[in-house]
Design a protein that fits this description.
single chain, alpha/beta, Purple Acid Phosphatase, chain A, domain 2, two-stranded antiparallel ribbon, 6 helices, bis(5'-nucleosyl)-tetraphosphatase (symmetrical) activity
Length: 147
């Protein structure tokens, strides 16, 4: 691999992710692509972004889970609007539901396995990649720290 490309916080803007990859002349045979999470919410094309990410992963990219994917997973597990569902909707989830043409978070459950299997941390050579943060020198990193 000649380069490591790390991209985070796409937030439903598939067209911008595609533009960045094009501008960087991304080549999966030559480059290592690491996507740092938050593929959904807020932007106009969360569905297309997830489809693109899934395709990139199938061609060797690494995709980490971000806090927005975690909020969606939490909402699927507990669709109570006062708790997890409400938190997700208030943080961009409404745009994602609209983009999917969905009226219920349960209709996004087909993405649950893919999102649950996204790792929270990835090490590549001497680099450690997470969505949010780590505490250097600490032996304990919680999921909340990483997300």
């Amino acid at each position: 691999m000649s380069r490591i490309l790390a991209i985070g916080d796409v937030h439903g803007c598939r067209h911008l992710l595609e533009a960045v990859l094009h501008r960087a002349s991304y080549n999966p045979d030559r480059d290592r692509l690491i996507l740092l999470g938050d593929y959904i919410d807020r932007g106009p094309d969360s569905k297309g972004t997830l489809e693109l990410v899934r395709g990139l992963v199938s061609n060797g990219a690494v995709a980490l889970r971000g806090n927005h994917e975690q909020m969606l997973l939490d909402a699927i597990r507990n669709p109570d609007p006062v708790n997890e569902l409400g938190t997700w909707l208030d943080n961009g989830g409404r745009a994602t539901l609209d983009n999917f043409g969905a009226y219920s978070v349960k209709s996004l459950a087909k993405w649950q396995d893919f999102l649950e299997n996204l790792p929270l941390i990835h090490q590549e050579d001497k680099y450690i990649f997470v969505h949010a943060g780590i505490f250097p020198g600490s032996e304990i990193q919680t999921d909340i720290d990483l997300l």
